[in-house]
Design goal:
four-stranded mixed sheet, alpha+beta, about 45% helix
Length: about 210
């Protein structure tokens, strides 16, 4: 699936070239423990390998997958969308920071705070990786006043971006995380338990 320019930060820049023969897409949810496990392996072990061995013929794309049975899933992915909007090169570092702190956004840790209070924490987290905290919060905050037409479902500054992501992901038929696509087809052999060695073996076999 094509990647719109405004979401270019989801692609890991293994090289300065935009040409790539193969594409691995990882569909992850920031509040899914299995997604966190896969992201950690990919981010710390696999991407450096890709950069050194396959910079010109492989690209990795992080597809944000909202899972509505996790109520905070939409909120954390909105934060990712805000980072993409403001400073796309910080998307992967922000994602790493969010996965590291993901338990802070599990049900029991958000149930007693308002939506905007959760956004405040997410904006602060974005600030910790060098994104303007104030601008992130401005994109995320939801007003408690109707819009000029009297509408009450006003959304926020990244609502349209999140809508696009959800629509695009539905086209692939992905329902749960983590899910991996290789060149547009679901790759069922890759799971969250894949180790660095298993990834390396898989890459050697498939990236030719």
């Amino acid at each position: 699936m094509a990647l719109p320019p405004k979401f270019a930060g989801q692609k890991f820049p293994a090289s300065a070239s935009n040409q790539a023969v193969h594409t691995v897409e990882i569909y992850l949810d920031y509040v899914c423990p299995f997604s966190a496990k896969m992201f950690d392996t990919v981010y710390t072990s696999v991407l450096p390998l890709v950069k050194s061995k396959y910079p010109s013929n492989l690209q990795f794309i992080f597809r944000q997958q909202i899972q509505p049975w996790h109520p905070s899933s939409t909120l954390v992915h909105e934060a990712g969308a805000a980072v993409l909007r403001l400073q796309s090169d910080k998307f992967w570092p922000f994602s790493a920071a969010l996965f590291e702190k993901q338990k802070e956004y599990f049900d029991v840790n958000v149930v007693h705070e308002s939506r905007n209070q959760t956004y405040e924490r997410l904006a602060k987290l974005a600030g910790s990786v060098g994104v303007n905290e104030k601008k992130v919060l401005e994109l995320l905050e939801v007003s408690d006043k109707p819009d000029r037409d009297g509408g009450l479902n006003t959304g926020n500054g990244v609502t349209d971006d999140v809508k696009f992501m959800v629509k695009a992901n539905r086209l692939t038929g992905v329902h749960v995380t983590p899910t991996v696509l290789f060149n547009g087809v679901v790759e069922n052999s890759i799971s969250s338990s894949f180790t660095k060695d298993q990834w390396e073996e898989w890459l050697q076999k498939n990236i030719i």
